[in-house]
Amino acid sequence: MPRAACFDRQVALERAVELFWSRGYYASSMKHIEQALDMRPGSLYATFGSKSGLFMEALDAYVARTGENFRLLLEGSPTVVDGLKGYLRSFVRPCAAKTQMPAQACMLVKTLLEINPEDAELLAKADAVLALVEQRICKALEQAKAAAELHPDVDCSRLARLLQAQMIGLRVFAERDVPDAQVEALADDIANLIDAYRLV
Length: 200
Prior knowledge:
- This protein is mostly helical.
- The protein has one domain: Tetracycline Repressor, domain 2 (Orthogonal Bundle), CATH 1.10.357.
- The protein starts with a helix and ends in a 9-residue tail after the last helix.
């Protein structure tokens, strides 16, 4: 029974991510949430406490899942740099398609752009999660540096910050009515920024 309950919670969080991504936080009413998660109001509040509680837990679950995908991508690539470049390309493609589950940049940047300053807790949550993503990129760069894939004088923290800033900008650009191919081409350009620091 405990295993089934845990599974149901994860399913509910996945559905919440889909809903918040497609409609946005403010446009997702409690009725929408009840229907998407197939839960009664009492169960929703007992499980997640509030709409904002559900949203923040959904962000946590989503980032944990994409973090695992990132790890698998790095492990399955010939080099750490190749894996990182593949990651930078991949997490913008669902943004362009607008028909798949949101990529990490999409979900988090959309949150930053949408949430009102008055909702300081939600903004702080999104900012903290983006900082975690930056740390993941930095750690991968440090692994590449240790493996002699990058120049020894590379500032991994600064490069990680640059790459994330570029991807945030691309996420905003993708909101325009532009062809998917243009968005993906720019993602390639951003991924290829790493080549300037590469040894192998």
